[in-house]
Write a structure and sequence with these properties.
The protein is mostly helical and about 160 residues long. It has one domain. Helices cover about 85% and strands about 0% of the residues. It contains five helices and no strands. The longest helix is centred in the last third of the chain and has 39 residues. The relative contact order is 0.18. The model has no long low-confidence stretch (mean pLDDT about 95).
């Protein structure tokens, strides 16, 4: 693969990791705090709607695209280990896969699916909501930090290659 294509892929991975960091940061810093301030049933209903709405092509492109680019760049970096910035590409790809992708699949998605099954006006819903808010946000903080660290690692790879 030519050096130019490699740099373009690294730039795309850097930008998409930054986009995902901003997405997760916004949820932790604004959206979830706002949902915690409204009546429980409204918070649950809104989060249920958000969890459906977020499953769209643009989100999938950013979320899965960053994962695929991270894997591709990590493999390419291992195969070309002497190229400056290779360690940063491997680190960035690993950070995203573990701290964003796996955390999403193992923690956030199952919580979203469970919340989607409750009646927002029920006692069960209110009990789940209290737990959901603290646990979901904690794991979202992990995703925020991991995607930001991924962004930084990919940016360092670009700097080392420059």
């Amino acid at each position: 693969m030519s050096d130019r294509i490699f740099l373009v892929l690294t730039l795309l991975a850097t930008l998409s990791a930054g986009l995902m960091a901003g997405f997760f940061f916004t949820f932790s810093n604004s959206v979830m705090q706002a949902l915690a301030r409204v009546p429980v049933s409204a918070g649950i209903q809104t989060m249920q709607a958000l969890n459906v709405t977020v499953l769209n092509p643009l989100f999938f492109a950013g979320f899965f695209g960053t994962a695929l680019l991270g894997i591709l760049l990590g493999v390419m970096a291992v195969l070309n280990w002497t190229v400056p910035g290779s360690a940063y590409l491997v680190a960035g790809g690993a950070l995203y896969m573990v701290g964003v992708f796996l955390v999403t699949v193992i923690f956030n998605v199952p919580m979203n699916e469970a919340l989607g099954t409750v009646d927002p006006a029920s006692v069960q819903g209110a009990e789940m909501w209290r737990d959901y808010l603290s646990r979901w946000v904690a794991w979202n903080h992990v995703r925020t930090l991991a995607s930001f660290a991924t962004f930084a690692a990919f940016a360092m790879a670009l700097i080392k290659r420059a």
